[in-house]
Amino acid sequence: MDGVLLVDMMIPELIHKIFQNFSTPLHLHDLNSFPWYLGHVCALWRAVFMTMHLQFWNKLDIKLDFIDNLCDYPFKKISRYELMRYVLKFFLNRTNRPFSFQLRPQYALGEEDYVSPMLEMLVAESTRWEDVSISWDQRSHVPILYRARNRLPLLRSLQLFKPSLTFKFNDELPLGHDLLEGASCLRNVRIADLCEWRVDWTQLRVLKIGQFHQGERLLSVLSQAKQLEKLAIYQALYDTGFNLDLSTKLLSFESLKVLTVMDVGLLSIFYAPCLEELYIDGWNDEDSTVHNVITSLQCSLARPAASNALA
């Protein structure tokens, strides 16, 4: 009885302070990891829990590859997917505030498409997107995603790519390259293929490029991205048949602190006096096992001699 009275006497500010220790994204594929129990104690706790937008209701993680493991249990697969859709709708209706999410599809080949309905629900709320990571595995997802064009006023960062199992280097994806036009808050971009994307490169702080088909296109983009703090190019120049020559214009990055490249040839045309970390021939710049890591680097990369030493 005393415990019940103590709970009733707790002020909302104190409950809010306690709940901050349980802050987490909502993982739709693992609903049990979300602290639903915080709203089950009493009406006051539930009221506080449901209004803590920044702690519980502004980040989504949607991973659908678990469906691959339920192919032999169709009823379980459908029921679990329907539950995920219900919770997603609940999350989106919780508030009109901005939110972030990552969406990763299933990779199994089959007739069912569990991504499209969820993607449609998310795109309908694209005016509230902040930090987004989307991976799609079917062409049918492209027109759905394209509906977000001119509806991304709050978008700060975007990772957009296809799973490596389905990506084809010579298959140009039909996604409109003007999707990100007008996204004035965009500062962080990671794309699988540079292609002809139309982005305000001058405003970017972080740029990660999976591949590019034309070296001239890459240099044109980099010449505009003067404010970059992190840059990663996950393709070697020789893969495109493009060779740097003595006439190539020097690229100056006064704010660049972290650089990841597959080809040391690029270093000969970079000027980055504030560079702190350099990763060569490393795909994942967060992997502690990546070789050739140089930390606290205080030098210019403008001289070929420097690039040779780093190689």
Automatic annotation (TrEMBL):
Name the source organism: Amanita muscaria (strain Koide BX008)
Task: Please give the name of this protein.
Answer: F-box domain-containing protein
InterPro entries the record matches = LRR_dom_sf
Q: Cite the source lineage.
A: Eukaryota, Fungi, Dikarya, Basidiomycota, Agaricomycotina
Domain of life the protein comes from: Eukaryota
